[in-house]
Specification:
The protein has 86 residues and is mainly alpha-helical. Helix content is 88%, strand content 0%. Helix 1 packs antiparallel against helix 2. The longest helix has 37 residues. This is Transmembrane channel-like protein 3. Keywords: Membrane, Transmembrane, Transmembrane helix. It comes from Ataeniobius toweri.
Length: 86
C-alpha cells in the first residue's frame, strides 16, 4: 500500500510540474507579446526572457523527474523508460 501511494504521489508531482511549466511558459510568452506591442525599444532581458525561461525549465525538469523517480522505487530499467517518457 505504501509503494502504491508513493507511485501515485510521484505521478501527481510530475503532472503538477508539467502543468506549472506550461503555465510559466504561457505567462512569459503572453507578457513578451504585450511588451512588444507597448514598448518601441525592449531591454536585453525582455528580448530574451522566453528563451531563458524555456532553457531553465529544460535544465531543471529532468533533475526533478529523477528525484521523483527515486520515490517510485522501480527497477532501474523501468525507471529509465518512465524518465524518457516524461
Amino acid at each position: 500500500a505504501v509503494l502504491i501511494s508513493l507511485r501515485i504521489l510521484a505521478n501527481i508531482l510530475v503532472l503538477l510540474s508539467l502543468a506549472g511549466s506550461i503555465y510559466i511558459i504561457y505567462f512569459v510568452v503572453d507578457r513578451s507579446q504585450k511588451l512588444e506591442q507597448e514598448k518601441p525599444e525592449l531591454t536585453l532581458w525582455e528580448k530574451n526572457e522566453v528563451s531563458v525561461v524555456v532553457s531553465l525549465i529544460t535544465m531543471i525538469a529532468p533533475s526533478a523527474f529523477e528525484l521523483v523517480a527515486q520515490l517510485e522505487m522501480y527497477h532501474p530499467r523501468t525507471s529509465l523508460r518512465f524518465q524518457l517518457a516524461r
